[in-house]
Structures are given as C-alpha cells and as structure tokens.
Design goal:
By secondary structure, the chain is of the alpha/beta class. Helix 1 packs antiparallel against helix 2 and helix 11 crosses helix 13. It comes from Tsukamurella asaccharolytica.
C-alpha cells in the first residue's frame, strides 16, 4: 500500500479524536485515511490485527490453552469461550487428542449453524489444534489446525442444522432449500477457515513480533501478485484492479492527447502571419491534427505457463477498447489463429469468462497443433495467413514468455512485423534475469522489438500506460 507523509500525518491526527479503547472504531478510522483503494482492505485488516490484537498490546494465547484446559477465555481473538461445552479431562490427566478434536468439531458445527462471528471457535481451534514445538520454541500452524479439524467434512452437518433451524428437516437433496443450506454452509466454513489462518498469524505475532509475521502473513496487494504464481482466487482478486487501472490509463491518455493537439508547423500560415512583424516568424502557426484512434493487434500466448498473464492483459485491453478504433486478438500455442469473434464487445469480461473462452479456443481453433510452445512456427504462420493484420496504422502487442522449446525463433518474420507496424512492443511476464536462459529466446527477440518485463498487474498497467499510442 502506498502510504505517504500526508496519510501518516492524517492518521496521527485521527488517533487524537478516536476512542482508542474501541478497536472497531480505530480500525475504520485508520482505514478511512490510509486506504486509497478498497481492494487493499483485506491486506490492511490482516496487518491491523497483527499490530492491534484484540486483547491489547500484541496479545497472547491463553497460557496452556493447547493443553487440557480448552479455550478457557479469549483465545487469540479475545472472544470469550465456553469451556463447559467442551469435554474436559480430569485435573492432571493429559487430554485425549481425539476427544478434543471431536469436541471442537461439535463446537464448530454449533457455532456455524448459529452464524455470527467466527472468532471464538476459530481461536479455540488455533489454541488446541494448531500449536507445535519448533526449533525456536512454541509456534502455531493453521495448516496443522485445519488438517486436524478438516472443516470441509462439517458442511453436511452444518447444512442439516440450518435446515432444522428453519423447519425444513425433510428437504430433499437437490431441492431449493437443501441447495441453499449447502451454499450457506460452504460459505461459513470458508469464513472459518480464513479466520483460523488470520488468528494463527496473530498468535505468531504475539511471540515473534508483528514485523516478522507481516512479511508472510499479509496477503499481497492484488497489483503485486506475480502472474506466474497466481491461483484462480488471486486472479479474481487481481480482476478487481482492472476497472480502476483502466480509468487511470484512460485519464492519462486523455491528458497526453490534449497535449498533442498541436500538429506540425504550418509553414505557409507562419510566413503569412510574419508579414505583420516585418517578416520575422515570432508566432508559429501549427496545422490542426487529425484526431484518430489507433488500431491494436494482440498476439496472446495461451499456453498454460502464461495463460494467467494473457488473461489479465486481455481484461485490461478490453476495458480500454474505447481508446482504439479497432482491436484484433490472435491466440497461439505452437500455431496461431484469430480469436476476436470469441470476445463479445458488449459484455464485461471476467477471469472466468476468459478462462472458459480460452478453453473453447484451444478446442475449436488452430492455435495448437502438438501442445508445446513454438514461437517460430507461430510467427511464420501469422505472417503467411494474416498478412493484412499488422499495418502502419496499428500497434502490435505480443504477450508471452518467449520460451520456444529450442525451435527456430523465426527472427526474420518478427522483424518484418515490427517494420510493418507503427508501434510494436513485447510484454514478458518473466523476470528480466531469466531472459535468454534455458529455451528462452527473449534476448534475441529483444534486439528486434522493445520488450518489457510485466510480472505483476502494477507493472503491466505502468508499461501499458507509457506505451499507449496517442
């Protein structure tokens, strides 16, 4: 998150008027002055929990809570537990792990059926199932806690509880009531899983300090997630950045176009105007520019290794479609075909629709012959089958990692395309240090075309913002 001196000063001023004993008020007040984008709220909340745990200071789990005593109090979340509801062993008797696990499962089912805050049961799960001894002392693992509890197995019991509470005990599988209860149960289990992960980080921060834990516990900002490592869930988070980025880029392009409104010098008008100043051309006359929107040709690598990158770039360029007079999209793996008709310009693209579209394209078009990337064959096929696609009026944008499985890179064909286009750029989702290593021919292509590293959405938006033609 970009937090400058202005935000820091405002946050300090806010602290003077907020009730510091009201944690919810403190959270909302700081979020209001520190966050520029709502999509950063998740990261902010995790960091806030690390530095401002519920029980004041940095917070600690209940002493000996992982033993036989149950939660006994607030747990790491500070929400009072109810130890009487758990099966408690006799004093001095080591707890039965299976009994503790089963008691927590029943507690979790009851809590999730009731709804509301998950903090109480999540804290108990972390305390009793997540603790382990590491080389540096006591530690907590959300993986260990969730593996022991296996929350996905609770969905059926929670759904039954929801149906019973609603008086729909006899709902048949497949009915509206049954499926609705299952959806709610899945949602609540996902919420519990997420909260266990968050409270595990809080527990670790209590022992090792929030700075050390924040480095790995705080989720990356959507614009900083690397395309190569992005999961489907992270791609959905990145999708939230598309509209704001598109608006920023459109505004930036509008400013550049306004600055470029003056065309080249009109010599005839300049000389005519200079007659009033003794033939000295003091005021230059400019030709009026012809406002035209450029054409865009996209060549997208659809192979699995870079599909996420092509997916997001396509979302962003589609959101910017109003800035171009024409957009043609071509997909490739080891061959190439036009896929423009697969994109409905009247509909807003999403990660899921693009993934489904890519699946259809792979099945129904000639983008792949054998399945392995072959940039050389792609370039030769593109020059041969689509000679009219790239013209002096258009911008060519190639998206891919330039890893061609040691095949002929077809440098002459790439050079021909670059010479045809008004502008030509290559966006590569790999680190620059990896270009030219292994089967990468990025170093060779980079001598013919301007190639840019675009590993994250933030880098991609910055590069596209600088490269968009006026």
């Amino acid at each position: 998150m970009a937090i400058g001196p202005g935000e820091a000063i405002t946050a300090a001023e806010v602290l003077t008027v907020l009730d510091l004993s009201d944690r919810a008020q403190l959270r909302e007040g700081l979020a209001a002055v520190l966050l520029r984008e709502q999509m950063h709220r998740k990261t902010f909340d995790v960091i806030f929990d690390l530095y401002f745990p519920v029980r004041g200071g940095f917070g600690t789990l209940s002493d000996g809570a992982a033993g036989a005593s149950g939660s006994g109090g607030e747990g790491c979340s500070g929400v009072p537990g109810d130890p009487d509801r758990l099966t408690m062993p006799a004093a001095g008797t080591p707890p039965d792990p299976d009994a503790v696990r089963e008691a927590l499962r029943q507690e979790a089912i009851a809590a999730l059926v009731a709804g509301g805050d998950h903090d109480g049961i999540a804290g108990q799960i972390v305390e009793q199932l997540g603790e382990y001894n590491s080389a540096t002392g006591t530690a907590f693992s959300s993986y260990q806690a969730l593996k022991a509890l296996n929350p996905q197995t609770l969905i059926a019991a929670i759904a039954d509880g929801l149906l019973a509470a609603a008086g729909e005990d006899g709902a048949a599988p497949g009915s509206f009531e049954y499926e609705s209860a299952r959806r709610v149960a899945r949602s609540r289990v996902a919420g519990l899983t997420e909260r266990v992960t968050e409270l595990t980080s809080v527990a670790m921060a209590a022992r090792r300090g929030p700075e050390a834990v924040a480095k790995y516990a705080a989720p990356q900002l959507p614009e900083n997630i690397a395309f190569f490592a992005a999961t489907r869930t992270e791609l959905h988070r990145m999708e939230q950045t598309v509209r704001p980025l598109a608006r920023q880029l459109s505004t930036r392009l509008l400013v550049r176009r306004r600055r470029a409104r003056r065309g080249p010098i009109d010599l005839r008008r300049t000389l005519r105007q200079s007659m009033s100043t003794g033939g000295v051309p003091i005021d230059l006359a400019h030709r009026r520019p012809r406002p035209t929107k450029p054409e865009l040709v996209l060549l997208c690598d659809l192979s699995g290794s870079v599909a996420g990158f092509s997916n997001f770039t396509l979302l962003l360029t589609h959101a910017l479609s109003a800035e171009f007079s024409k957009i043609r999209v071509f997909g490739f793996v080891d061959s190439v075909d036009e896929i423009t008709d697969y994109i409905d310009p009247s509909r807003t693209l999403t990660v899921d629709t693009v993934v489904n579209m890519f699946d259809r394209v792979i099945r129904e078009t000639d983008v792949a012959r054998f399945g392995g990337s072959d940039y050389g064959n792609m370039l030769r096929t593109f020059v041969r089958d689509f000679p009219e696609a790239v013209t002096h009026r258009g911008t060519l944008l190639i998206l891919g990692d330039a890893r061609s499985n040691h095949t002929d890179p077809a440098l002459a064909e790439l050079d021909e395309l670059v010479q045809r286009a008004r502008h030509a750029f290559w966006l590569n989702p790999e680190r620059r240090a990896s270009w030219g290593t292994g089967d990468s021919v990025a170093d060779k292509y980079g001598r013919l075309i301007d190639m840019y590293e675009c590993r994250t959405a933030g880098q991609l938006a910055d590069v596209i913002g600088r490269l968009l033609p006026v």
